[in-house]
Write a structure and sequence with these properties.
The protein is mainly alpha-helical. Helices cover 74% and strands 0% of the residues.
């Protein structure tokens, strides 16, 4: 089914380029949300540096991004010391 649709595309290069641009924009938006919006909210609530908190959660964040699953990060250990709370 999908192969038939891909074969039916007249200009595959433009379609792939458009999808690549879409992926780039989505990933950029997620990074802006994580390092901008959420960091600002964390600072407003706790008055602590949000980037030290994010640094402590780096292993869990990378696992979630790499596996595309938040459930896969459950066994990833992080301690209170690494979060600098």
């Amino acid at each position: 089914m999908i192969v038939g649709e891909i074969i039916g595309v007249e200009n595959l290069a433009d379609t792939v380029q458009g999808l690549g641009l879409y992926m780039l924009i989505v990933i950029l938006g997620l990074f802006i949300h994580m390092f901008g919006t959420l960091a600002l909210f964390y600072f407003a609530v706790t008055r602590k540096n949000p980037f030290t908190f994010l640094k402590g959660m780096l292993q869990a964040i990378l696992t979630a991004f790499g596996t595309a699953s938040s459930s896969a990060t459950v066994p990833v250990p992080f301690t209170w010391d690494s979060l600098l709370l």
